[in-house]
Amino acid sequence: MKKDQFVPWLIRLTVLLLIFLCSYMFLKLAPIWEPVLKVIITLLVPFFIAGFITYLLHPIIEKLHQRHIPRWLAILLIYLLFFGGVGFSVVKGLSHIIKQLQELAVGMPDLFEIYHNWIRMLNNQTSHLPPFFHTRIEQTLVDLENTLNQSIDSLIAGIKELLNGIFVLIVVPFLVFYLLKDFESVKRTAWYITPKQWRKHACSLLKQIDESLGHYIRGQLLVITILMIVAALSLWAIGMPYPILLGVIIGITDIIPYFGPILGALPAVFIAAAISIKKIFLVAGIVLFLQFLEGNVLSPLIVGKSLHMHPIFIIFALLVGEEVGGIFGMIVAVPILAVIRVLFVYFRTYRTKH
């Protein structure tokens, strides 16, 4: 290799080694910066939540304003409706959800005792099969019981931790009010602090992301709210235990394309199977009705086809999201993919033109 070719490679290798060294030192200093980072994140969380809520509510306010309703009145109406509805739901619903979670945790041993009896019957009827077959079934049931108990405990702890941080979340409604009231001022401030050479690209990108993602997010939130209510009422009507908890699970998981309905139905079917065969058919009928309602009525009317992405890419994003962040990763995978798609198309178009 010639000397003039060797030097650039040596520089690249040196830079790479320095990056690895800096990363290693950064990780070693984690005990110092992790507490600081935690405090910063705790302080920023209300601003992120308030920004997201403002993003959801602002278009509604603009539409009301275009109908000759004074802006201050539109803000006040939407603000009171949104936070009044959320506050009522939290006060009335959260206590029931925690109570039902605790009841489920207490009743879990009895529930699994029924399944253990089924396994014993299955073992007696399949005694001619190899021993490892029976051992594997028993171990799977034990692992499932441990996983469910840990999930319920983690969920209860998470809700209690959220309630402990309620003083931080109290700030959110005030932040949302001022962000909505001074939305144009916030936009102007963001415009002026953005470097001049980036302003045009930033505005174009944000507009395209909003067109691709905004309608989808707002529509999905409305759809899962309706599904939660219908699912909880339907399960309560057929006498299923924990109807509010199961309704919330069915509604939230429905936001996951393709896999969501299956994930949401599993807990309800699992509990129904321990009650009676009739309950299984009733729960299955409710789940099928909810999927028909969501797929043929709610989503086409409310969400539409706003993402314009091929199902193969969506499934791939869901698999990656599940691997990285579990259920939460699957929920945010599609919106993140939508943003990546907009960025890719924008920069490809920009490079083609230049």
UniProtKB/TrEMBL annotation:
Transmembrane portions of the chain: 6-27, 39-57, 69-91, 162-180, 216-237, 327-347
GO terms, biological process: transmembrane transport
Keyword GTP-binding attributed: no
Keywords: Membrane, Transmembrane, Transmembrane helix
UniProt entry tagged with the keyword Plastid: no
Cellular localization per UniProt: Membrane
Secretion signal span: none
Top-level division of the source organism's lineage: Bacteria
Bilayer topology annotation: Multi-pass membrane protein
Major place of residence: membrane
GO cellular component assignments: membrane
Family (UniProt): Belongs to the autoinducer-2 exporter (AI-2E) (TC 2.A.86) family.
Protein name: AI-2E family transporter
